[in-house]
Write a structure and sequence with these properties.
Elements lengths: L17 E4 L1 H13 L4 H13 L8 E3 L7 E5 L4 E7 H6 L16 E9 H4 L4
Parallel strand pairs: 1-5
Antiparallel strand pairs: 2-3, 3-4, 4-5
The structure holds zinc ion.
Zinc ion (ZN) binds next to helix 3.
């Protein structure tokens, strides 16, 4: 007989997620920081907020709808966003195609996809 093992259903904190930045995201960040070098701390802080709790309902992050259903955006300011996916939500959403390489990515992966003004942030992954 197997002994019952309790696996916590609610996970919390940095340890529970894997964080990935796609090449496009890195490129977007580099472009943004080239134009706004004074905002580096703010960008680092925003990433820290996402990484410490990617599902935080009280942060500047919100769930996207429509064509981007299953993904999230973090509001840096009125016009700039960071778009990301938590693959568990990503696979439950209707967005097609899913995030890059989604089928090989564990549920607890947080994938940073794009950032910048609406056009790049909500553009192709
Ligand atoms: Zn995914």
């Amino acid at each position: 007989m197997h002994e019952r093992v309790d696996v916590p259903l609610v996970t919390w904190g940095l340890m529970d997620y894997n964080f990935v930045q796609t090449n496009k995201f890195k490129k977007d960040c580099a472009t943004f920081l080239n134009q706004h070098p004074e905002r580096k701390e703010e960008i680092t802080e925003a990433l820290g907020n996402i990484y410490s709790n990617p599902k935080n309902p009280h942060s500047e992050a919100h769930k996207l709808k429509g064509k981007l259903d299953g993904q999230r955006a973090y509001e840096l300011d009125y016009s700039n966003r960071m778009r990301y996916a938590i693959c568990q939500e990503c696979r439950a959403g209707t967005r097609q195609p899913r995030c890059l390489d989604c089928s090989n990515t564990p549920d607890n992966t947080v994938k940073m996809l794009r950032m910048g003004a609406h056009k790049p942030a909500y553009g192709r992954d």
